[in-house]
Amino acid sequence: MAPSTTLIDPIPSPPSKRQKIFSVTGVNIEADILSISDEKGFEDTATISSHPLRIKPSGNAYTSESNLRDTSTGLFAVFPDELIIDILGYLDAESLSQLGFTSRGLYAFSRHEELWKALFIESPKSKLPFTWRGIWRRTHLSLPFSKEVLIPTPDLFSDTLHRPFHMSQIPLKPYASKIPSQNAILCLPDMTAEDFNQKYSTAPFILTSPVKDWAGYKEWSIASLVDRYRDVRFRAESVDWRLGDYYDYMRDQTDESPLYLFDRAFVEKTGGELGRGFTVPECFGKDYFEVLGDERPDRRWMILGPERSGSTFHKDPNATSAWNAVIEGEKYWIMFPPGSPPPGVYESEDHSEVTSPLSIAEWLVGFHREARRTKGCREGICKAGEILYVPSGWWHLVVNLSPSLALTQNFIPPTQLSAAIEFLRDQPGSVSGFNTKRVRDPYGLFIKRMEEQYPVELQAALEKLEKKKKTKWGTLTDTKGQGFSFGFGCEDSDEE
Ligand SMILES: O=C(O)CCC(=O)C(=O)O
Ligand SMILES: [Fe+2]
Predict the structure, then answer these.
(1) Of these four, 38, 142, 383, 456, which has the most CB atoms within 10 Å of its CB?
(2) Any idea which ligand is nearest the CA of 391?
C-alpha cells in the first residue's frame, strides 16, 4: 500500500526513554516512555509499547530503503493492506499458519490478531471451556507461551497492522481528566421523584449515594461474582463464555476494543440473586414501558469489562432513558444532547443508522479535543457506588477507566413519554428489541396499553406532540422537547 502522509510514528511527542517491559502476556517488548499533553497542558507520563513484531506505521517507509510489505509478500504486494487482511480472513487456522511460513512479510500478516480473534470466536472452541492465553492466536492454537517464537519484522511498515495494537496502548485516562467546569455533569447525593420530574429529567446527572445503600452492594465485587458464577455462561458481544474464562481474558489482553460482557439475563442466570440486590432509586420509580409487561423489550443488563472497554457513541433504543449504576470500577462518560451528534459521528437522515466506525480510542484521539469545545457537551466520571442518568435521545460514549462491573436499566420516565411515543410512531424502522413474532405493531400496542392504564398521561403526551408539530419552534428543532441545562461539577471534578 502506498505510504500515507504520516511520516513518523503518530505519537504526540518524541520518546524520551526506552525500557524493557515484561507484559503479563509474556511478550517482552521494548517501550517508549512518552509524555502525552493536550493544548491545555495536561501531562501524563505514559508507556506506549512498540508492536510485538516491531511493525511500524506506513509513513516510516519513506525513510527506509525497503518495506517488507512490498518485497516479501509475493503477489499480495499489489493489494492494499486492508484487502490482504480481508483475503486472509477467508483462510482457516491451518492455512493461515502455513502461509505465515512462506515469507517474513506474510508471517507478519498471518499474525494479525484481528484474524485470530475472528477464527476463535467463530470456531466451536469458543463454545467450550477454554484456556485464555493472553492473545487470540495462542488461545485458538492452544499454544503455551513457552512454545511461542516471535520473529521481529521492524522493516515492515503498515498502518493496518500497526494501528490496532498502537490504539490498545494509547493512555485513555488523560481524556477523562481536567473536565472543563461548564461541561461537568451535575452531581447530587440523591433525588426525589418530584425533583426528578420537575427539574432534572432532561439532562444527565450523577447520584452519588443510592447504590451504596443497596442490599449486598458491599459484598459484590468482580472477584466475588466470578467466584460464585465461574461456570455460568454470560453474553459478551457475539459469544457466550463462562464467566471464569471471560475473567481470565479481561485480566490479560491487548485488544483495541476489548470484548465487552453485556448480559440481559443476569438475574435468571444467578438464580435471582443479583436481581434481589438492587433497588431502583426512588426518582426513577415511574416507568411507562412497564405497561408492555412480558412484551416489553429487554430492559436491564449486567455490564462487565476491563480497563479501556466501553460503549462507542450511541443513543439508547426506542428513545428510552437509562440509569447506569457502577458496582466496581469507574466510567468516564461524554454526552451530547438530542439533535447534536458528537463530532465524528454521522446519522442517516431518517435517524435509523449511526456511522461511527471508530473504536473508542480512535474517537478520543481524533475528536475529543473538538468535542470538549462543542456546545452541549457533558462529561463526568461515575465511580463505584454512583449512578448516572442518561436522558432519552442523548448521545453517549462510555469508557471504563478501570475494570468495571455495572448494572443498567432502560425506562420511560413521565417527562420522556412523548419522546418515546414520537419515536415508536415516526421511526418504526429503528424500533428495536421487540419480539417481532409476538408484537407486530409496537406503537399500536404501547398506545393501547397506555389507554388502558394511563389515559390521562397518554392524552397529555399526545397533546404535547401536537403542540410541538404546530409551533414553529417545534418544526425547527428536533430535540424531542428536551433542552439541556448547565450542570455544576462534582466536588472532585478537575476544574480548570
Ligand atoms: O456502561 C456502559 O458501557 C454504558 C452502557 C450503555 O450505554 C447502554 O447500556 O446503553
Ligand atoms: Fe447507552
Answers:
(1) 383
(2) 2
- With contact defined as beta carbons under 8 Å apart, do 164 and 184 qualify? no
pLDDT at position 472 is 53
- Residues with Cβ within 8 Å of 372's Cβ and at least 6 positions away in sequence, in order, are 180, 183, 379
Residue nearest to atom 5 of ligand 1 (CA): 311
Q: What percent of the chain stands above pLDDT 70?
A: 83
Q: Is the distance from the beta carbon of residue 312 to the nearest atom of ligand 1 less than 6 Å?
A: no
Cβ of 327 below 6 Å from ligand 1: no
Does the pLDDT of residue 152 top 70, yes or no? yes
Residue 354 has pLDDT above 80, yes or no: no
The residue to which cell 415508536 is assigned: 424
Ligand 2 centre to CA of 315 (Å) is 6
370: its cell numbers: 473538538
**186-188 vs 205-207, strand pairing mode:** parallel
407 lines ligand 1 (CB under 6 A): no
Nearest ligand atom owner, CA of 327: 1
CA of 249 to the centre of ligand 1 (A): 20
- Are the CB atoms for 69 and 83 separated by under 8 Å? no
Topology of domain 183-476 in CATH is Jelly Rolls (2.60.120)
Which range has the worst mean pLDDT, 210-219, 227-236, 485-494?
485-494
pLDDT of residue 95: 98
Ordered by start, the domain boundaries in the chain are: 17-171, 183-476
The answer to whether the CB of 176 is under 6 A from ligand 1 is no
Q: Is 310 in the pocket of ligand 1 (CB under 6 A)?
A: yes
410 lines ligand 1 (CB under 6 A): no
pLDDT tens for each residue of 288-333: 999 999 999 988 999 999 999 999 999 999 999 999 999 999 999 9
| Any atom of ligand 1 within 6 Å of the Cβ of 158 | no
Per the prediction, the chain carries an average pLDDT of 85
In the predicted structure, residue 24 carries a pLDDT above the cut 90: no
pLDDT at 275 over 90: no
